[in-house]
Design a protein that fits this description.
With 91 residues, the protein is α+β, with helices and mostly antiparallel strands. It has one domain (3-90). It has two helices and two strands; from the N terminus they run αββα. The protein starts with a helix and ends with a helix.
């Protein structure tokens, strides 16, 4: 094998792991829980689309912001499902 082929294979593997990682985390027994994230502690984009990154929420417990929690624990934490959060933000 040439060094160029080895380097290309290594780079392709690293890129593939980077793309697969977030999807694997989503399927690991976690669910999105809306309305429980503290300011600056959300996990990703909000419902309104005003930002698209983690850590950009401006207010505590905003119903449009979410965090990943263990499946089945969202309601106990006082959170909302995606459908409930969408309905609440439309009001």
């Amino acid at each position: 094998m040439s060094q160029r082929l080895i380097a290309s294979s290594a780079l392709a593997s690293i890129l593939a792991l980077g793309l697969i990682g977030p999807a694997a985390a989503q399927d690991s027994g976690k669910e999105k829980c809306y309305g429980i994230a503290k300011a600056g502690q959300n996990d990703c984009a909000n419902l309104s689309g005003s930002h698209s990154c983690a850590g950009q929420s401006k207010a505590d417990n905003d119903s449009g912001e979410w965090k990943y929690v263990a499946k089945g624990t969202c309601k106990a934490a006082g959170g909302l499902s995606a459908a409930e959060a969408k309905a609440k933000t439309k009001k």
